[in-house]
Amino acid sequence: MPEMAQRASSSATASPETDERDPHIPSSIPPWVHISSSDSTPFLPQPSRPNTRHYKPPPSHYKPGRKWDGYRTAEPALLSAPIAEHQVRWAGFMDSGPNPGVREEEGRSMGAQWMADNVPITTRAWEAEDEARADMPETLTGWWLFSPERQERTVRLFWRLLLKNPFIPLLFRLTCLAFAGASLGLAGTIYRAVYNVNHDAIADNQCATRASTYMALIVGAVAVPYIGYVTWDEYMSKPLGLRSAVAKTLLLLCDLYFIVFSASNLSLAFDALDDHRWACFDDGYDANVAGVGATCPNNPSICSRQRALSGVLLISLVAWLATFSVSVMRVVEKLR
C-alpha cells in the first residue's frame, strides 16, 4: 500500500501546478492520435484554391448534326405498316403496365333507348345556369311584399342581370348616345336662333350666345364618336383580362372625364335659365340689373329650347353616371 500512498501524494502535489498553468500554452499531442508522416502541418489552415475548370474549345471543323451520319439511311421516317398492326405489337406491353387502357373489345355501344332509361341526364337539353336559384327552393309561396325569400331572389336576379348580361352596357351606351345627340342638336338650334336674332332688321334686338351653348356643342361633338368607338371596342375587341393596366384605367377614366364636363355644362345651362338678363327673363323685371344691361331680349323660342337643353343635359348626366357605375362594377366582377 505504500505505492498507492506515494501516487496519491504525487498527484496531490502535481494538481496545483496543473491548475496554475496558462490555458493558452499548447499541450503535446497524445500518443493515440494518428498523424500522417507526409502531413507536416495538419492543423494549420490551408490556402484556398480556386476551382479548376477545364476548357476545351470545339474543333474548327465541328458541324452540328454530323455525328450520327453513319447511322442514317435512305428510308423515309414513315410507318412501314398500318397503325393497327403496330398497336397489336405493343398491346401486350401496354396491358401489363400498372394502368392498362380500356380496350375497344371490352366495351359495348348501347342504344339511345337504353341511355334514356339508365342515364336520363343525357336526354336533357342545355340549360343556362341560374345562380340566383342555386340555393333557393323551386317554389316560393306568398306575396312578394311579404316574402323575404322572393325579395332576396328578385335582388339576386337584378344584380345577376346587371353584372353578367352582355346587353346591359349596350343599353346604357345607347342611352348616353341618344341624349348626347339630342343635346348637340338643341345646342345647334339655339346657336342658329341667336344668329338669326342678331342678323334681323331690328338693330336693338341683339342676343349673346351663352357658354352652355358652346359647351353643349363641344361636348356633344366629342361624345357621339367616343360612345360609338367604346361600344364597338367593348364587343369587338379583346377582353379586359388580356389588356394592360393602362388600357383598363383609361377605359374607366374617359367616362369620368365626360361626367365632369357634363356636370359643368348642366350648371351653365341652369345659370342661363336663371339669368334675368337673357332670353328667359320676366317682362316686368328691370332689364338693367346692377348697371349691367340685358344681353338678350325676351325670346320665348330661345328660352323654350334652353329649357329643353337643360332637361336633356340632366338626363344625360344621370345616364353617364349610371354607365360609369355599371362599367366599374362589371370590371371588378370580371377581374376579381
Record field, number of beta strands: 0
Calculate the mean pLDDT score and round it: 76
- Secondary structure category: mainly alpha
Helix share, percent = 40-55%
Question: Roughly how many Å apart are the termini?
Answer: 94 Å
Number of helices: 8
Shape, per Cα inertia axes: elongated
Using only C-alpha atoms, the radius of gyration works out to 47 Å
Order of helices and strands: HHHHHHHH
Low-pLDDT runs of 5+ residues are 11-18, 284-293
Q: The biggest beta sheet, please?
A: none
Give the amount of beta strand, in percent. Answer: under 5%
Transmembrane segments: 170-191, 211-229, 250-270, 308-332
Region (Disordered): 1-68
Biased composition (Polar residues): 7-16
InterPro entries: Srf1 (IPR037737)
Model description:
- This protein is mainly α and 336 residues long.
- The chain has helices at 2-19, 83-95, 112-118, 148-164, 168-198, 211-236, 245-274, 300-335.
- Helix 6 packs antiparallel against helix 7.
- Mean pLDDT is 76; it is low at 11-18 and 284-293.
